Amino acid sequence: MKTDLDALLTALYVHLDDHVLPSRRQQRRRGRARLLSDAELVCVAVAQVLLGCDAEHRWLRLAPARIGHLFPRLPCQSEYNRHLRGAAPLLLAAAAWLVRQTPSWHERLRLMDGTPVRCGASRTTVHRSGLGEIAGYGMDKSHHAFYWGAKLMLVTTADGAVCAFSLAHPKELDERLQAIHLLHVQPPAPGPCPIVCDKGFAGAGVEKAAADLGHVLIRPPRADEPDPPVAVFPGWLRQRIEAVIWTLKNQLGLERHAARTPEGLWTRVCQRICALNAAIWHNWLIDAPVKRSLIAYDH
Length: 299
What we know:
The chain is globular. It has 10 helices and 6 strands, in the order αααααβαβββαβαβαα. With 299 residues, it is an alpha/beta fold. Helix 2 packs across helix 10 and helix 5 runs parallel beside helix 10.
């Protein structure tokens, strides 16, 4: 397992430094020079997620023993926290590049679904939290419960690599409006493609808006529809994105994000998605017979 992680981080660093975040293009910053380059910072952040360290203070204690032979110059906790909070554009660029390097990027099929990202469970947290700009009360229909948090919308390939994603306030943008906005700002595929989703995306408006972009929404029929859109819905295929959501929330720690600001929440979402795409990309790179994520490390 350790050898797999070493190979993943080494390959990821080489490709990021050569093609995505080259060091020679980094702008000179004021103050002390950083110990980690942009490519190194992304690799260390990915290793943190894959090794299951949700808290940065715990990760900086474990990192020298786990990845110190690959990154001998690790920053202190305050420096790492500060640089990681501003690393969302780097993680987003890395995740977008990784998904485009997988063979499934060129397949004409996408999966789409939304899931709540809970940010607080008490009334005191709601009043005092700095996440009020992005978080609000919403309804989690899968669990028949209300929550206070943000709504994460995902578009993935058939093998689970995330092509596009966004966070939104559950009251300001409902699921259908968020999906259309995401398809506008982040093209999920090289061209028009069918998108498998659930009944929550039913509606003439959302289907027409997707069709205007060239995408066809494939969803299960509702009980009140006299003329169902599809005769047989591939329910087994839609379960794949449910597995991706479960992986992000449980195995990769998104459910335990502990963010206190909108910027911190966005960075943690980008960090988890970048780690997921990196694991899937590395599986394709080494031609692994079973496309699994590298999560099963002893903590």
